[in-house]
Amino acid sequence: MNAAFRQKTTRVILFIFGDSLYDAGNNNYFPIPLRINHWPYGETYFHFPTGRASNGRLIPDFIAEYAKLPLIPPYLQPRISYNYGVNFASLGAGALQETNKGSVISLNIQLSYFKNVEKNLRHKLGGEEAKRFLSKAVYIFSIGTNDYNSKTTPIPFHSQEEYVGMVIGNLTNVIKGIYNKGGRKFGILNLVAKGCFPVARALRSAGSKGSCMDEFSTARKLHNTVLSKVLVELERRLKGFKYSETDFYTAFSERINNPSKYGFKEAKTACCGSGPYRGLGGCGGNNKYELCDTPDDYLFFDPAHPSEKANEQFAKLMWSGNSPFIWPYNLKTLFELQTQ
Questions:
Q1: pLDDT digits (tens, 9 = 90+) for 236-284
Q2: Of 20, 54, 103, 135, which is the active-site residue?
């Protein structure tokens, strides 16, 4: 192991797991149909499509900036370094293996990629040093929302409670898998009310004046309740386990209901898309689409994903916010915490 790498083990490190909210381009390197590698994605900041589901940067990109890190590379990008962390997230992924099966890098596969990184670090650093390196890292997750989209979840289930238990159970197993390899500090988003996204308003628009689809939100609310309880229990049972939970549901809902308060002119219609609320047909590629002139005016860039401006606001909240949106630690404090 070279001295330069050993020196870098004293730095902060960020590992990223999840779905399209966090995917920095892994799907571009995987033979699957769910990709966002076409214009106008990336137009605002990168000026070319990177695989990110936005006009610019995502939440983890801003978190990395606040932590004084470079952009964290996708795991599947060739010839990457692990010195500052890795991004394992995949557009369309869920906590369950069956969600969008065959079209995404599932959370379990993301865990297997992390284990490959851990094995590589042990080889370079030795077992104890690798574990110390991983204990200093922060592991952030955005996962679960795709598990509650009826078209992507073929598993039959007896009750909503049972299904939520399966989703949370698999997420918990992945967190424990990381903990067993040395991970101690975790940042978790709860789930948003997707029934108010442009894609949902468009599906409901006929005769409803584009109202929210409340049926999209019921399971997510239950998920959030169970998630909070499970995180408290993990902190009680696992020595050294620390976490930051973000009430993404409320933070997003506030911007949908009061866009002008947060500097947005439009929170119902997407910047890019087609049909009612620009909520249908996708954005760019082979799709016919409309594109707004000023993405920063919009809460949503495409029918289902926030604009860069919204991502920056959410990242700032996660980094330095307080209760009732963030608890028991914000990410800035979590990065600074000493681990056991």
A1: 999 999 999 999 999 999 999 999 999 999 999 999 999 999 999 889 9
A2: 20
Q: How far apart (Å, rounded) are the C-alpha atoms in residues 129 and 304?
A: 41
CA 127 to chain centre: 29
Q: Which fold has domain 3-336?
A: Rossmann fold (3.40.50)
Give the H or E element holding residue 244: strand 242-246
Q: What is the token pair recorded at 166?
A: 């399966």
Active site residue: 147, 247, 305, 307, which one?
305
| Type of residue numbered 331 | L
Is 19 catalytic? The answer is no
Render pLDDT for 208-221 as a digit per residue (tens, 0 to 9): 565 677 666 788 99
Neighbours of 319 (CB within 10 A): 22
For residue 291, what is the enclosing H or E element? strand 290-291
Q: Mark whether 217 is an active-site residue.
A: no
Q: Single out the residue of 176, 131, 175, 127 nearest to residue 340, CA to CA.
A: 131
302 is annotated as an active-site residue: yes
Start-end of H helices in the chain: 3-8, 59-66, 107-125, 127-136, 160-180, 198-204, 218-237, 248-257, 308-320, 331-336
Identity of the residue numbered 223: H
Q: Judge whether 308 and 299 are in contact, CB under 8 Å.
A: no
